[in-house]
What we know:
Elements: H1 15-36, H2 46-76, H3 81-108, H4 113-120, H5 129-139, H6 145-157, H7 159-172, E1 174-178, E2 184-188, H8 192-196, H9 201-217, H10 219-240, H11 245-253, H12 257-269, H13 272-284, H14 309-323, H15 325-336, E3 341-342, E4 354-358, E5 363-367, H16 374-392, H17 405-424, H18 431-466, H19 473-488, H20 501-504, H21 518-537, H22 542-551, H23 557-565, H24 572-580, H25 583-596
Parallel strand pairs: 3-5
Antiparallel strand pairs: 1-2, 4-5
Helix pairs in contact: 1-2, 1-3, 2-3, 3-5, 3-6, 6-7, 7-10, 12-24, 13-18, 13-25, 14-15, 14-16, 14-17, 15-16, 16-17, 17-18, 17-21, 18-19, 18-21, 18-25, 21-24, 22-23
Amino acid sequence: MPWDLTSYFPSFNGPEMLQFKAAIQKDVAALQRAAAALPALTAETAPSWEDILLRNEDLSRRMSHLSSYVSCLASSDARNEAYLQEEAELTRTRAELAKVRIELLRAVKPAPDEVFDAFVVRSQLEGAANYLNRLREEARRAMSTEKEILATDLGVDGMQAWGRLYDTVSAKLEFDMVFPDGTQKHLPMSQRRSLLDNPNREVRRAAFDGGNAAWQSIEDTAAGALNAIAGTRLTLNRHRGVDHFLDIALFQAAITRKTLDAMFAALMANLEIPRRILRLKARLMRRQTVAWYDLGAPLDLAGQERLSWQKAQSMVGAAFARAYPALGDFFKGQVVGKNWVDWEPRAGKRPGGFCTSSMLSKESRIFMTYNESLGDVLTLAHESGHAYHGAIMRDLRPYARGYPMTLAETASTFGEQVLMNGLLDDPTVSDSQKALMLDVEIGHGAIYLLDIPVRYEFEKAFYEERVKGPLSVSRLKELMIETQRRILGDVLEIGGEDPYFWASKLHFYITGITFYNFPYTFGYLLSLGLYAMFKKGGANFLPKYEAFLRLAGSDSAENVVQRTVGQDIEKADFWTAAIKSLEDPLDRLQALAPKVLPASE
């Protein structure tokens, strides 16, 4: 692994790690006993519950350190059984710590408002008000303590086990790739993504067909996992008195239904903008329509440069430094300077990419598979944006750092915008390179405004049907095809759907957060809105942006946006303006295309 993990522990299962882990397990058990012995929150028990909260916060900080380390190892080498075993053991430890939270729910649920309000403003809990208020809200729909503890215990070998099974199977899955020249290779699934981004349509189709043949071989396993995860959630919702499965997603996203509806109303009213992107993509490929595997297709320009890892670091670093010097310094000094990225392609790596942070060491690590494409450079900028968000919040208490995905994805997509616009404004960049970048920029727009809404609409329909019982493989395929056709419309080639997208998209199998997908569209559009303010206000806007990042875990998404940049995201107008901002790069690419692709007209 090319990244440096020694700031976590000198070695895996070395004495430092074993002592650290043993101390956590001992302290979790002691805290459980102490919390379980306390009566509910009153004026008299307030000091004791304050102590429980402070000890719980310290354990959360230490757990984030161990969890981040283990996730780095298990993702980088999913064939290492010791790493997978450690990951499973960590799940059990997290479940034990979650039982302390269950006691906290028990504590605040019956507390009179005046007692709870006085508790929130205690000096030792300064900065934790949002955490406590959300705890109070969650407590209102919690089951009895005994049932919540049982659900937590069962989750380790139930819903979470299904998620781990999917992770393990998908990481080990390989597919047969037949290249246009007849060359055949047996490749890990983690390398399929870059092949689907290949400018050669025959390569994309071969990767699509070969990959789906592999997913078909495990379709029953994937369907079983998906049905089990959703079924468990729906059962728990019923026992907790949750009215609608989206209520939990909205709570986790820290937004109102009004905000979600406003965003999707704006999106559905303006679907022709991302569809126009796909129509242009089809025309530049000399086609009338696109297939699902064309969504990430770049322009097919002769002599495209393969971008080395060193070149990628240089591109990101230079663009960040020009537009946002503090971000540039962070990238150069921390991300690159301290070797935070596992980037190399190799067998056994899990698909996808992520940024993980430790609240103890106050450092981050970035996991990705770099295949020398411009899209991979964007991924580096995206994940570095996450890491910068962590750095902005590094001195906040853990209770103020728990921001929702809706706001988490803003910093990452903002990082992409800084990179893209920085390169587009560089006079040394050729028309050909600018066309490629504009293509990537609007291509991302199509993904965020078509692909991810497909995921959301599919998942919503799936949960509605799952209430009546498990869905068969054939129904899951049918539902995915129906959804893709409805959202993409007539720009989607007949027969060009991806019936196995429900199996290949790992986001459907993440157990910690439900409806993992729509926050990406939310964060993308929010970042477009923020970046438009940045372009207008320049450096004067950056203090507001950094205030936004710092407050992300301290209030609802609506309040954070209103307090820092003065925008009302419960109204469709904000989202409509963000969507329409894509028309500029779309028009620029249309104008530039004839210069780099003369036959495109």
